[in-house]
Amino acid sequence: IVLIAVVVMLVGYIGLFFGRWIKSAVSRQREYLADASAVQFTRDPDGIAGALKKIAVYSDASYLNVETEEVSHMLFGNGEKVSMFSTHPPLNQRIQRIDKTFQPEDLVQLARNIQRKSEAQAERAAREQKSSAAGAGGMFNWDNLVEQIGHPDFSRILMAATLAASIPEEINQAAHSNQWATEVLFYCLMDADEEIREQQLLFVAQNMGSDSEARVRGLLSAAPQLAREQRLPLLEIAIPELKRRPPDHVNKVLATVKALSEADGQTDVFEYLMAKIIAQHLWESVNPQRVRLSGKKSLSQVIEKARQVVAVLALQGNRDKAGAESAYRAGSTILNTGDSSPMPEIPDWKETLDANLSALDQLKPSDKETLVKALVATVMADEKIAVTEMELLRVVCLVIHVPLPMIGVAQS
After folding, report:
1. pTM, entire model
2. Range of the domain at 383
3. For labelling, which of 16, 61, 122, 145 has a CA lying 20 to 30 Å from the CA of 319?
């Protein structure tokens, strides 16, 4: 009986061995398919390859000690060291299928870069903590703003959370609702002048219907006037909900936004920003296949357009000519134009931005970074930033697809 039991046990373990081996082999092939699907879905092979490279760098400390097999399907990399039962192919092979230029030796340099970046972040956090303790406020540190694009630090996340929490609860809930998101956009464009506001509400009723007008009035009753800096984050909350609406509804919203922003016969910076953000987000939601986050142009090919955009920010942020010229020089120096040409004349800042931003959106990523550095230098030439400057900087970054971190502003 004991012998029979031993034989049955051996047969069972052999079956278990081959079962796990076959399962692991199938799983490895499915991982290749998953990587290909991720690249196709995101259209960002560099991002997927970059994530796998980081996993490879940290892989020595990533193995599980318990219940490895049960959770293996949830992992991005191998959870155990036995290659025969690995549920994921070797990371080097996965990376090479996505990035044909990859060499395993590249991981050594990547590890060094990550270590240096981690040390720099630790030093920066220590400086910000020291500055905050002294009353200076680390979250208003502009030195590392460009470095934080796409990777905001804790202080800027805290600033964004604080601003979001200051929005009235009724308005915040409406922005997150797919039934009220459209009216939140209209609400953000309501003028402070009562007569102009009634005219705007009439536009809403004519274009979108009386129910939409009633919702906007309800929002106005809940919070008659928002602080200017609260409206942009509110807009960014509402737009994703609006993207789910059909194209004909989106077109009506765009027409209504245009009418509301022009109701008083002029378009200020915030109204321009609102219209631009809404138009771009909604156009991209209807035409996702035509969206490109960057292009192949160099800064030298569009340098005149870049100089004009820098000049717009310099003029909008400074009331006197000397201050505007000083701000322009600060930005143009980073652009490295190689000449001392005077600041371009800007007859109409809105037309200038409309004419130039689409070309700047075609810059390659490294040149976009240089452009953003120039814009930041321009608005910070006087070591402070007003709401108007922040709004202009944000709309430029939005159109060229650069996610600008939260910014502290001086009230104006």
Report:
1. 0.57
2. 299-399
3. 145
